[in-house]
Amino acid sequence: MEIGAGRVQVAARVRPLTSQERDEGARRAVSVRGSQVLIEDASTLSNLNGDEGSTQTRESFVFDWCHCCGGDGDATTSLAEDEQAQELLFRAVGAPLAEGGLKGVNGCVLGFGQERSGKSHALLGNSAHPRAGSRGLLPRVAAHLCEGRLPDLKVLLSVLEVSPSEGLRDLLGPAV
C-alpha cells in the first residue's frame, strides 16, 4: 500500500480457524481473492466432516490490501506461517505508515472486529512466542522508526482498546 495524501486506506486480514473451531468441524466462511474479501453463503457451506459442496458468494468487499492467514484452506497457521503473515502485514501497512510519519503525515491503525477475531494478535503479536519474528504490527513499526534514526526523533504513540463491556483501556499504560 502506498501512503496516499489525504486518503484513508483500508486493509483486511482474515484470521485462520482456531483449534477449537476445527475440532468442532467448522469451515471458513470468509476467503480472500486479490483485494476482495468474500463472504460465503452459509446455506452452501458444509462442515469439514460433510460433503464438499459448491459455495456461493453472498457478499464481497474490496479493500486496498487483503491477506488470508493460513491460506484459503481451513487450516490453522504454524508459527512460521504466522511470522510470515505478520511480516506481510508490516510490509503492506506498517512500513508505509511509518515512512509517512517520518515525512510528517499522521497515521492511524484501527483494528475492528468481533471479540477474539485477531485484532490484538495482528497489532501486538504472539505473546506465547515473544521472539522477533512473532512481533505484531506495532512492535515492528516501532523498531522500523528507531532503525538508524537521529537521536532527536520524537514519536507519539497511543494504543487504546475500546470495548462495549470494558470501555476505554490504554494498552501501553500500567496493567490494572
Q: Characteristics of this structure?
A:
18% strand; globular; single chain; 7 strands; alpha+beta; 176 residues; two-stranded parallel sheet
Give an overview in words.
This protein has 176 residues and is of the alpha+beta class. The protein is built from four helices and seven strands. It has helices at residues 19-23, 79-102, 119-124, 137-146; strands spanning 11-14, 30-33, 36-40, 57-62, 65-68, 160-163, 167-170. The radius of gyration is 18 Å and the shape is globular.
Measured as a percent range, the helix fraction is 25-40%
Number of strands: 7
Rg value: 18 Å
Structural class: alpha+beta
What is the terminal-to-terminal distance?
37 Å
**How many alpha or pi helices?**
4
Tell me what portion of residues adopts beta-strand conformation.
Answer: 15-25%
The oligomerization state is single chain
**What characteristic shape results from the CA principal axes?**
globular
**Rounded average pLDDT:** 77
Write a compact overview of the structure shown.
The chain is an alpha+beta fold. Helix content is 26%, strand content 18%. Strand 2 (30-33) and strand 3 form a beta hairpin.
Write the layout of secondary structure elements.
Layout: E1 11-14, H1 19-23, E2 30-33, E3 36-40, E4 57-62, E5 65-68, H2 79-102, H3 119-124, H4 137-146, E6 160-163, E7 167-170
Parallel strand pairs: 1-5
Antiparallel strand pairs: 2-3, 3-4, 6-7
